[in-house]
Amino acid sequence: MLRMELDERDLDSGQKHQKHFERLPSVVESDTEIEKDFERLRIMNLNCHLAVLENDYLYHIALEKSERLKKAFSDVKYICMGGSPKRMYQFAHYIKEVIGLQLPIGVALQNISEESDRYAMYKIGPVISVNHGIGCPSISILLNELIKLIHYAGCKDVTFFRIGTCGGVGVEPGTIIVTSEAVDGMFRPEYRQIVLGKEQVRKTKCDEDLVNDILEIGKVHEDKDGIKKVISGKTLCANDFYEGQGRLDGAFCEYTSSEKMDFLQKCKENGVKNIEMESLCFTGLLNHAKIRGVVICVALVDRLNGDQVVSHDLNIEFQERPFKLVAKYIKKQLEKN
Ligand SMILES: O=P(O)(O)O[C@H]1O[C@H](CO)[C@@H](O)[C@H]1O
Ligand SMILES: O=c1cc[nH]c(=O)[nH]1
């Protein structure tokens, strides 16, 4: 009863978010568990309604708020994401080897979210490997459900990685770029989303310590262990692969080749080292929730030299480079603890 009243009162109140946060804990003083949950949600800027939801089905990853979910996921410390399901299946196997996790004989890695058919997710001890599809809308849905998952499971100190591919800007193909900050097509370090008819703006820096730790590992392993060059810089996040990234080979193009080159030059002048399609949402949502995260992408092409990305064996090898870097970081952290 308390839960219903609370939910209805709040939903009908039309009060501002902040006021809502301030008001709710006092309303539920008779239920200390809910009160504690409100506090945890409030601290992380998450949705207070979650504390009073009796059921929550995480539709796109086919999981449900439950005691079972808590037991199965409470040990999660690292969530690694990348666009393609195949890549994240390979990463799951790779990290399993690196951290030396033995599955019982006859047991294979299972896609936990198979039922949803939207994302493919694997759990390897404290690591989740999951694909996010293409673009901010797709990764946004996944991040919402994963953030709820780690909240419901009571996970502590979780770090997120986006292990991806990108186009480099004045960067040799095969180079790994660790994002310092994501920017939009107008070089604004802001993730903008329309919510209830208003623009909501969130900051897009990657966790500085995490960036430095990854760069440090990159330095140690540069030119060996299949890692090659690792650099850091701003990442431009586009809403499209073609016009949105100034390509000349899309179905639409209403600019000249020299206008394209001027824009790429401007990218360089603004400190942009690479272009991809999810970093704004990834950093924007994680920063807002005060969760550590970093974007690590390998360049498949130098956009100053062309637009075409050709599928070939070298790209497969390139895609594995961020795996190696992240796996080394995770292994090192696990050995510390
Ligand atoms: O290689 P992933 O991680 O999928 O990411 C990049 O590749 C896709 C475009 O081909 C976009 O999603 C872009 O961000
Ligand atoms: O140029 C590229 C390559 C990979 N992914 C992108 O978004 N752009």
UniProtKB/TrEMBL annotation:
Q: One Pfam family this chain carries?
A: PNP_UDP_1
Q: Domain Nucleoside phosphorylase spans what residues? A: 77-329
GO annotation, cellular component aspect: cytosol
What are the protein's GO molecular function terms? Answer: uridine phosphorylase activity
Q: InterPro entries given for it?
A: Nucleoside_phosphorylase_d (IPR000845), Nucleoside_phosphorylase_sf (IPR035994), Uridine_phosphorylase_euk (IPR010059)
Positions bound to phosphate:
118, 162-165
Gene3D superfamilies xrefs: Nucleoside phosphorylase domain
Example GO BP: nucleotide catabolic process
Residues the record lists as binding substrate: 245, 247
Superkingdom of the organism of origin: Eukaryota
Into which family does the record put it?
A: Belongs to the PNP/UDP phosphorylase family.
Entry protein name: Nucleoside phosphorylase domain-containing protein
Natural source organism: Brachionus calyciflorus
